[in-house]
Design goal:
Order of helices and strands: HEEEEEEHEEEEEEEEEEEEHEEEEEEEEH
Protein name: EGF-like domain-containing protein
CATH class of the largest domain: Mainly Beta
Number of helices: 4
Domain EGF-like: 17-59
Radius of gyration: 20 Å
Structural class: mainly beta
Signal peptide: 1-20
Keywords: Disulfide bond, EGF-like domain, Signal
Largest sheet: 5 strands, antiparallel
CATH topology of the largest domain: Tachylectin-2, Chain A
Disulfide bonds: 49-58
Length: 398
């Protein structure tokens, strides 16, 4: 075990009980503030972290060594010479879905860039694809089909029990194809972000045409992250939608009129220590709410986008108050299963694949990533979390 892995293991073991706490909020709602033993001093409590989290306040994802070239990494693949670009089939993050009929098959719904263009041409070259893996959730994934045409970006897909269908949210717009003389992004004023939703009874489709649910006139209309409010006890069609700046909208149904129910008081300006984007929203086994976001503290302080890249925010209620502990939930330094360590230039678009046993244990972190020295080539990366992923894969025969 190298030094980095040893440090992570030690913190995961010891960090959960290393600092006194008063409430579960001091444990980031990722654990419980409790007396750890009968021998604890009277009134002394500390955090007992849930699996997948560690640290003094349970605010760090317990990332484990990853397999190199996993996920959806086709940025070096050849592109038709009649098309533009030098960046292969670059991609930028997505959602991992386990096939309900074939549990050993995993799908990745991801953003890819058309015509061999890379990340620097994400608008208008981004479109949505579905890829498949027979090697487990970590991949590698291989292209299966296109779900949309450009411009569609930042997809997130969830299963809605109330509607018995998959809901695919993304930003983008349908429009006639613009001239594509070079792989460069164009202004949002020409291709607005606009949040839309498409549905399908099966992850393979057929997908309905995208329906606009949040227009570009709203300042929050980008980077959607949906989560159903349905539970076995409350069988509702309501959908919570986290968006840019971790603002929270509530929909009576996935495509109905919406209500803005919360904005974050600490996320009101760019280039501040609390500057975040790209929210990923979920509700845990206790009914508490969480989100991961791209924390841009390094851009604020040093003009770069690494290594402190992940923020975790949390609340007991969807309407708040929400809390942000100003430290990284994950960073852009990756330890690989062969013992090597690499710091990525960019690691964004965070999404978590959770256990399906009711515990909501985080098993894998999915990101859009970019290597040092790259200006446009990018890929989608999957990294295991904690220990539970091992049993998950073992049960599936991997």
């Amino acid at each position: 075990m190298n030094l980095h892995s040893l440090l992570v293991a030690c913190l995961a073991t010891l960090g959960a009980t290393s600092q006194a706490c008063e409430t579960d909020e001091d444990c980031s709602l990722n654990g419980l503030c409790r007396r750890q033993s009968p021998w604890s001093k009277l009134g002394e409590k500390s955090c007992k972290c849930d699996p997948g989290w560690f640290g003094e306040d349970c605010g760090h994802l317990d990332l484990r060594p990853a397999i190199k070239d996993n996920g959806y990494n086709h940025s070096a693949d050849a592109v038709d010479s009649m098309h533009l670009g030098l960046y292969g089939n670059s991609s930028w993050g997505g959602t991992v879905v386990q096939d309900p009929q074939d549990p050993s098959l995993f799908h990745l719904v991801a953003a890819q860039f058309a015509s061999g263009c890379g990340l620097s041409g994400w608008r208008p070259f981004s479109f949505i694809i579905r890829a498949e893996s027979r090697n487990g959730p970590q991949g590698p994934y291989h292209y299966a089909e296109s779900i949309s045409e450009p411009f569609r970006h930042n997809p997130e897909v969830i299963w809605s029990p109330a509607d018995e269908k998959y809901l695919l949210y993304s930003i983008g717009a349908d429009d006639e194809e613009q001239p594509r003389e070079k792989c460069a992004s164009i202004s949002y004023k020409r291709w607005p972000n606009n949040i839309s939703v498409s549905t399908a009874p099966d992850i393979r489709g057929p997908w309905t045409p995208f329906k606009l649910v949040l227009a570009s006139a709203d300042p929050h209309s980008t980077n959607p992250s949906p989560w159903p409010l349905w539970t076995p006890q409350t069988r509702t069609s309501k959908i919570a939608l986290g968006v840019e700046d971790i603002a929270i909208f509530l929909f009576d149904r996935y495509d109905s009129a919406y209500e803005l129910v919360h904005t974050q008081s600490w996320n009101t300006s760019e280039y501040s220590p609390t500057w975040t984007e790209d929210s990923f929203l979920w509700r845990d086994k206790r009914g508490h709410w969480h989100a991961l976001a791209h924390w841009m503290i390094d851009l604020v302080e040093d003009g770069q986008k690494w290594p402190r890249v992940g923020a975790h925010v949390f609340a007991r209620e969807l309407t708040g108050p929400w809390h942000l502990h100003l430290h990284e939930a994950f960073n852009s330094t990756v330890t690989y299963s062969d013992g090597t360590v690499r710091t990525l230039k960019r690691r964004e678009r965070a999404k978590i694949f959770f256990s399906n046993d009711g515990e909501m244990t985080p098993l894998y972190l999915v990101n859009g990533v970019q290597e040092m020295g790259e200006g446009s080539r990018s890929s989608t990366f999957v990294q295991p979390i904690g220990e539970a992923w091992k049993d998950f894969e073992k049960r599936l025969g991997f």
